[in-house]
Amino acid sequence: MKKILERSVIEKARDLRAGEYSAVELTAAYLDNIEECDEKIGAYLFCDRKLSLDMAKRADDMLKGGDAPLLCGIPFGVKDNICTAGIPTTAASKMLEGYIPPYSATAYERLERAGAVLLGKTNMDEFGMGSSTENSAYKITKNPNDLRRTPGGSSGGSAAAVSANTAAFALGSDTGGSVRCPAAYCGCVGLKPTYGAVSRYGLIAFSPSLEQIGPLTRTVRDNALVFEAISGKDPKDPTTKDRIGDTLAGLESGVKGVRIGIARELADSNASAETKEAIFSAARALEKEGATIVDISLPSLELATAAYYIISSAEASSCLARYDGVRFGHRTKKECQTVEELFRESRSEGFGKEVKRRILLGTFVLSEGSYDDYYKNATRVRGLVKRDYDCAFKSCDVILSPVCPDKAPFIGEEKDPVDVYLMDKFCVGANLAGIPALSVPCKKSAEGLPVGMQLTAPFGGENILYRVARAYEVIR
């Protein structure tokens, strides 16, 4: 069965319908692979073999009934900040240790109804704050391509699970690159959808105006299939929008006549020479297939990273205020004389270093005397970023760029926090503008590590992203 795990989701769906194997057999194969591999990779925080096999049995019953959705019987992983009713959901934080939500996120619920089979909850940077999955309170996830390196973050467990064949696909969340960065480092396909395309109901909040749930898969077609299954209007999330239509339609149309923009600012960016060459090589390959390469400019992206960290930290400070040890979250066992002392001790014990750093930054930028200088100016920059994208898309259909400046860093590598934040430079613009962006495997580095390229499209432009990505996937 191990070779079967390497097949795409769509191939597995056909196999299940052809009776080559059952959903129970497929799920058991994934669970066996988790038992064999995950001790060294650390992609999962929670697995329950009985739960998964019970779901697989129900999927087999659905398949026997006929007309089951394509994802019926397909095993998948879910990032641990996406609520699953009756199943532990901790956001990889001591603050939520032992928390079992009474409800499920809409995105997960839609997959459950489709008959997909949950394998477990995947590791992440605590509350989604980080780019390496080293900020989890429970374990460090390793990159399956090189166990000395990080898988990226914050959806590192989801990307590692897909890369290691311990999940057919996985859900992550992306606030400023948290699906795309791990996808790039692990050699997967990862989508940050248009804001409102996928319901945020049941996603443990970090920065609600920026974050979206998105799929990580091995192929572009699989990604389009999962996105279609989880997207669409949800009355529980008023920001959601109607589905954009059949994402698989037109997927094989090629790139003839498609205008692909490359920002001239890339040449002077912090991307490594190897990364830049990978992007320009991809552009040349797409041009040979009939695409037109267009020179564009995105000048405000130089300011986007600072604006992103101000806005996201401010929202994090507000969202995480509820975790005080009284109404919600970890409560200290120390004897406290005042409520303030109880708050301080509970939050000091429950939150990790990176979360504390961002809460402090967010509280500062929202404070009297700082609000106008920092938060208000950051929202102005957000408007400039959106304007620059709108202007660029008048002359191109998609924008091609790196996902990350360089290959996956080593675990434990000492870096200044500001340098770490600047690694998100190519990703945060899409979140600030609310537009879709897709990470696609591009080529291998000199050390044989995956390098990802990013395709960005106008609001609601997932279909053109998938079309271009599929064309490149075929010729890569």
Describe the overall structure.
With 476 residues, this protein is of the alpha/beta class. It folds into 2 domains: 1-299 and 395-476, Amidase signature (AS) domain (Amidase signature (AS) enzymes, Alpha-Beta Complex), CATH 3.90.1300.10; 304-373, no CATH class. The chain contains 15 helices and 11 strands. It has helices at 9-18, 23-41, 49-65, 106-113, 156-163, 180-186, 220-230, 273-288, 301-319, 339-350, 353-365, 371-392, 417-422, 428-433, 462-475; strands at residues 44-47, 75-79, 117-122, 169-174, 189-192, 212-217, 259-263, 292-296, 398-402, 437-444, 450-456. An 11-stranded mixed beta sheet has the order 1-3-2-4-6-5-10-11-9-7-8, sandwiched between helices. Strand 10 (437-444) and strand 11 (450-456) form a beta hairpin. The two termini are 27 Å apart.
